[in-house]
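Input.
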Amino acid sequence: MTPPSVFTLSTAADDGVPEGFRRLDETGPYFQQLGPVYARETETGGVVLGLRVARNHLNVQGITHGGMLTTLADGALGINVWLARRQRSAQVTVSLTVDFLSSARVDEWLEAHVTIHRLGRTLAYASCDLKVGARQVLRSSGVFALLDRPLPEGALPPQDG
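Output.
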């Protein structure tokens, strides 16, 4: 499989990263604060995002911070909706619901799995599960407004061809 052409993925996997995942180099400044985030293309043309939980992802109780988990879920939802649209147009999160089911700890590999439920002309509906192995950490669903304006200049790398 080839990586999605709309994102820059490194060509070599980092140590300790599961096979098939490549570092996602092109994301927004806020999302970059999560640290290295990795992507693996799915058979349906979307991506599973993954990251290694680090100390800076923890709250005072020593478990993953809810804001970090929500950021990862919202980012994974947005990227997958954008890929499903197959066009370089803007979109915004209208609604995001989150259920915290468990937690993740330092050094665990956390993955974001997205399902697109409906992709209309003006709205998209999707859900995201964050998992450590088989353990579900977070369940979320989002609604995205699909805008008829191009992405801002420099928002994503230019596409070849």
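The CA atoms of residues 89 and 150 lie 5 Å apart.
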